């Protein structure tokens, strides 16, 4: 198996997408610098910030940071944290939990991208079969990643607007959703990367040169 071949561009595309989706899937509370939304809040007379990730959230105070237990679908009383006491537009905690369940789409896209990367490795041995399977799985992964990105935009943009309308609220969107978008684009064009490699990186060129040299030695 050669390290560089016609399947290399497609393989690198799926590998990069897998890394991005892996970071997003295990962001807050693991990778605290990657998050979907950051909001300021007040609790017990203290001011702090809360960051939302795929598997949980982190509360940051002046004296330290506390994170939730990593799990799919987490529950949180947003109304109390942001100081919203309007009974007409309260956000039910059960609704928050069910909405966060949808974040599992990032993990599904990550697993599919990982499978596509595995087929990309196979494509260096058997180009046609590996590239075809890798492209097909990348198509499924890109679809799931697109759904995850659309959900991120809808959920966290609405949450940002909702929090910013509160007198003491302040929220900003994070980088996790844009990493998801980048992964989606890489997966979407995986087939193009494989086609580019097939056209621009001839298979067996180095093998042919080596064979010609050996044939020339035998001829003499």
From TrEMBL:
Keywords: Membrane, Transmembrane, Transmembrane helix
The UniProt record lists the keyword Membrane: yes
Membrane-crossing residue ranges in chain numbering: 12-31, 98-122, 128-155, 176-197
Taxonomic superkingdom: Eukaryota
Keyword presence, Metal-binding: no
UniProt-listed Pfam families: SUR7
Family annotation (PANTHER family): MARVEL DOMAIN-CONTAINING PROTEIN, PROTEIN DCV1-RELATED
Protein name from the UniProt record: Pali-domain-containing protein
Gene source species: Marasmiellus scandens
Organism classification: Eukaryota, Fungi, Dikarya, Basidiomycota, Agaricomycotina
């Amino acid at each position: 198996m050669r390290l560089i071949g016609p399947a290399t561009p497609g393989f690198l595309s799926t590998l990069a997408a897998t890394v991005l989706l892996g970071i997003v899937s295990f962001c807050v509370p693991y990778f605290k610098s990657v998050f979907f939304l950051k909001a300021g809040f007040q609790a017990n007379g203290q001011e702090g910030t809360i960051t939302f990730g795929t598997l949980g959230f982190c509360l940051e105070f002046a004296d330290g940071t506390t994170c939730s237990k990593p799990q799919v679908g987490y529950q949180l009383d947003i109304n109390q944290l942001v100081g919203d006491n309007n009974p007409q537009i309260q956000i039910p905690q059960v609704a928050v939990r069910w909405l966060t369940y949808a974040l599992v789409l990032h993990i599904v896209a990550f697993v599919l991208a990982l499978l596509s990367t595995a087929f990309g490795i196979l494509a260096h041995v058997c180009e046609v079969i590996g590239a075809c399977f890798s492209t097909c799985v990348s198509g499924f992964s890109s679809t799931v990643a697109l759904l995850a990105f659309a959900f991120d935009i809808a959920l966290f943009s609405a949450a940002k607007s909702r929090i910013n309308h509160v007198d003491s609220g302040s929220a900003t969107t994070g980088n996790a959703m844009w990493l998801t978008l980048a992964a989606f684009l890489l997966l979407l064009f995986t087939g193009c990367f494989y086609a580019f490699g097939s056209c621009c990186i001839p298979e067996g060129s180095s093998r042919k040169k080596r064979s010609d040299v050996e044939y020339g030695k035998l001829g003499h």
